[in-house]
Amino acid sequence: MNPHQRDIERLYAHLRSGADGLTQAEAKRRLARYGPNRIEKIAEQPLVIRLLKEFTHFFALILWLAAGLAFFAEWREPGQGMATLGYAVLGVILINGLFSFWQEYRAEKALAALRNLLPQHATVLRDGKAVSVPAAELVPGDVVLFTAGDDVPADSRLIEAFGVRVNTATLTGESKPMARDVTATAEELAALRRDILHAGTSLISGEAKAMVYATGMHTEFGNIARLTQTLHEPLSPLQIEIARMSRLVAMFSILLGVLFFLIGQLVGLSFWANLLFAIGIIVANVPEGLLPTVTLSLALATQRMAKKNALVRHLPAVETLGAATVICSDKTGTLTQNRMSIRQVFYSGALLTPNELIAADPLFAVMRNCLDLRRVEQNGQSVWQGDPMEVALLESVPPGVASFPRLDEIPFDTERKRMSVICDTPQGHTLYCKGAPESVLPLCDAMLQDGNVIPLDEAGRGHLSGTQDQMAAQGLRVIALAYRALPQHDAHRETELVFAGLIGLVDPPRPGVTEAIGTCHAAGIRVIMITGDHPHTAGALAREVGLAQNPVAVTGDKLRVMSDADLQLLLDEPGLIFARTSADQKMRIVQALQRRGDIVAVTGDGVNDAPALRCADIGIAMGIAGTDVAKEAADIILLDDHFATIVTAIEEGRAVYDNLRKFLTYILTHNVAELVPYLAFALFKVPLPLTVIQILAIDLGTDTLPALALGAEKPDRDIMLRPPRLPSERLLSWGLLLRVYLFLGLLEAVAGMAAFFFVLHSGGWQFGSALGAHDNLYLQGTTACLSAIVVMQMVNIFLCRHPSLSAFSRGHRFNRMIVYGIVFELVLISLIVYTPWGNALFGTAPLAAEVWLFLVPFGIGLLLLEEGRKALVRGMVRRNAAESVAR
């Protein structure tokens, strides 16, 4: 059935109803058959399954394996501290999983209001009488009565309509209120059907009677909600990269374990001793602190973004936004303020701004009286409700312009495209008229010029027509105003009007949007407008905000007949914008961009935006003007609805990726220093310089807060002058691995081994001599190795703040958390070394002052060598840049 194409009588017959609606008994039967009129949420995964997923992703499985191996080693050889390691790793898995689940569950519950968009009650005809019923009880065949300000609870076909205009912005993105009447239409695009009221829209003005033909999930709103809920959310780039990194860590750890097992066999270790040794190698190379550090770093970033009015629902979304290469932006309410304002006025033969409009009493009288607004209470304030265009007219009228008693009204309708009112003024009955220029100007035979009424000849009409075209070319919505003194008993009231002026209105850009788009362009991020609005309006806004100087507007009609291959070619077009698009078309554009390899961010606030928000790599909804459906589908909510906030969020997202690399460099550096002692133990038959429990003290103890401090680094000043990182760029790059494993890590390992042998030789140990596991000299030696790694990491944290800039150049970017991290390291290592419980738990012994003095040159050496490496890198970059300029 196509209710928009049927005449009323055929619709009555099809729905077995009539102009007086249904009986209560029939409505009850239909409710049992069709179900309640509400949006049903498709069954989600049970909370238990969602919680279990936090414990079964790849890196968590690696930690489970490490814990299992640790318990196995403890079973084979008790007393080596492996059980403590196993319990600690289990604690990491548990705490990280619960924290991640809680973060996202809390955000989900804060925004789970999908069903609240539809109105709670509706006035319907039951048994021929108007009654108020819960909107959930509406059924097909019900006749609903509407007045201005009412929300539409279900898809309905108009039976009667008087001056009806509907706000469809939440469903279509169209900022201009749309007229609706009872005329059947052949229009296939649901949003443009003139005789249909769709669920989720609202009446701006007029009165109507309409018959419900679809409820709940069968409405257009329900179709969009279903599409939104069934879409599979793609993995974020960070999730993909961490999964890849987890595989690398697992393979590297197992490879080293096998290699050291073979080495142990060659040097004559027994099978079980060799196996336990290999297990120790594997566990030592699994960075147990990586997962909680990444999670906490993302959580800290969400807190910083919340302070900047960006609420993050899913933790990985923080970093994904920083990787965005394209932003597909809605227009109404996102780039614009979603309210009309007067941009230009043509009065007395001149084009003026509103501020230049003075001594225009006849024009102000039309603007003040030819309105259909009412006062309502909203959030504790009295505001005007009605057509935003009329609100803009009223707000532009100077104080003191009189409002006259209304005697009669000729309401707006789509055929006449104008509205007139008759008022009782001190000069007698006066008619005020406003409407489309093509409707009002033919009724005028005079115009105002320098305060005088002069005849309107053909030359004058031509001038007005040219002025109208000039204003429309700027993307303005143009309306004409006119008036006349009305003789009593005049049957031809809308004739012989006096033209008062043209008003050019616009939905103005949000403050800061132009600068934000400029920043996006400088950062190599493409911005594409996708709107349900008119292409002329969209093009004018694109030029105004610097989106495109010569915008190429593609409408939904063109897109509908375009093949996927043609769309891929079209996406290469600079200055591209899409207008008059539907929800599925917006989603198609996003998917086409993703197939090109783009990381796509989508902004929106309406129901029509929800599918695109869901399928995008990063969905961004407006927090104030956004519908609950859009917020439900989004990853990030802009609490201030400001497009410029996106730029701040992108900057934060890019900083997150940079910071992930920084603390990866930091925490992986000590892996080498932890690995070399095992290598020395196997190859050179020396006592094991670092025990498993001491490795745990570093991974989950001393290094945690400093690593988080690097995760809280502020964005670099040039971060928004760089292009987005390439999709092929890896978090664990070869450059990072070489720097960690062949430079920083080796230097730390040298310091650790030097400290170990310094203590042993100071105590009289000779190479080849045996030392018991509980010998005080051996305990002091392992403590020295542990302390050396911690001291080197205190220096390393400053070196890791930037891969090429000097640590001394970062002084102006003070990071208080780094100071806290170093203090935390000092306190913790002091407790481990100098307290009885620390000695007992970690197998340590107090160190003499000369050991700490022995470590100082190694810290200075690490600093100087890394600063030298950075200087070489900077020099190479400068030379390459100079050569590029020369070429």
From TrEMBL:
It comes from the Bacteria. GO terms for biological process: proton transmembrane transport. Keywords: ATP-binding, Cell membrane, Membrane, Nucleotide-binding, Translocase, Transmembrane, Transmembrane helix. SMART domains: Cation_ATPase_N. The chain crosses the membrane at residues 55-73, 85-102, 248-269, 275-301, 731-757, 777-798, 818-837, 843-865. It is a multi-pass membrane protein. GO terms for molecular function: ATP binding; ATP hydrolysis activity; ATPase-coupled monoatomic cation transmembrane transporter activity; P-type ion transporter activity. It is found in: Cell membrane. One of its GO terms (cellular component) is plasma membrane. Residues 2-75 form the Cation-transporting P-type ATPase N-terminal domain. InterPro entries: ATPase_P-typ_cation-transptr_C, ATPase_P-typ_cation-transptr_N, ATPase_P-typ_cyto_dom_N, ATPase_P-typ_P_site, ATPase_P-typ_TM_dom_sf, ATPase_P-typ_transduc_dom_A_sf, ATPase_P-type_domA, Cation_transp_ATPase_P-type. Pfam families: Cation_ATPase, Cation_ATPase_C, Cation_ATPase_N, E1-E2_ATPase. Belongs to the cation transport ATPase (P-type) (TC 3.A.3) family. Type IIA subfamily. This is ATPase. It comes from Ferrigenium kumadai.
